[in-house]
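Lab notebook: predicted structure, single chain.

Context: the supervisor wants predicted structures on file for every construct in the current expression panel, including those that have not yet been purified. This is the next one on the list. No modifications to the sequence; it matches the entry in the shared construct table.
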Amino acid sequence: MIAVVTGAGAGVGRATAVELARRGCDVALLARNRARLETVASEIRECGVSALPLPTDVADPDAVEAAAATVEAELGAIDIWVNVAMATIFAPLSQITPNEFRRATEVTYLGQVYGTMTALRWMRQRDRGAIVNVGSALAYRAIPLQSAYCGAKFAIRGFTDSVRTELIHDGSAIKLVMVHLPAVNTPQFDWALNKMGKRAQPVPPIYQPEVPARAIAAAALNPDRREYWVGASTVMAITGNKIAPGALDHYLAKNGYSSQLTDEATPANAPNNLFETVDGDYGAHGRFDDKARSTSLQALVDRHRGATAIGILGLCCLGFAVFSALARGTASSPHQAKGAPPSPQEGAVDGSLPAQHAVAGTAV
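Prediction complete. Output recorded below exactly as produced.
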């Protein structure tokens, strides 16, 4: 299978590209930084598959289309397209310029729009394929200091739901899935534009990028579900906002700033990747390895709902069988003397009881 992953130079995009390669996919890598893409490509080729690094700014629709044409020509027909690329700004709206807000929106939101448009143009020719748009718990519950990012994630969810209904209307076999992420240990907290004077951090609990990468790969290879939610914190944020959004407004007004900032001052020479790529191989992980979780029971169970349901049903049946056996044992005559012949009222196993007693016995 041929997969395209945007934002593949670092973070969740990089982890997703590697995960798809491990599952046997040839992978095209789209991001701005050529050197990082070459590094990822080398890692992917070690899995025994092909890798095609394509430096691309996803905010440029012509560049995205050109990248897709190259993939089709050099790797083959695109089966999977994963939109991961993002940009954010840590600042209250009053400190963000229109150009900064526009750029974050173009990368995070329009990047997924252009990726979806391009993927559909190629996939419609064959009426097959899967597109995975990566969202966030913040696509349901916004937080302060990231208005551009939250707005983009909300927009991606609305856009995805709309296009999905169009595909269903057309009777298309192409699948469109969303995967919503928790806080993840990626380099964005070191290279995102930050105007707060303190270093940024993900809101705990924090997960390693391989956790959502596994969910994204599962969604791409098994795209029959609308959405995947990754991490118990994502489930809590989404459901909590449905129940008490006003209470969360006040909670986040009080705690949303401090939970996203450390006590460390932002370095004077801190990188900023909003308009230009940042040099260096940042890898998939950020600086929070000591705090990040490498597994999520919720995500594992969510990916294997069928097997989990069967297992639970099996345990329930086993428990019922044990309870029934114990109940039957308790219902038998406990006062009968050992070795004494059965009384006329007790159930014999040779079928010699009168019919009314046999019926009563089976009904108990």
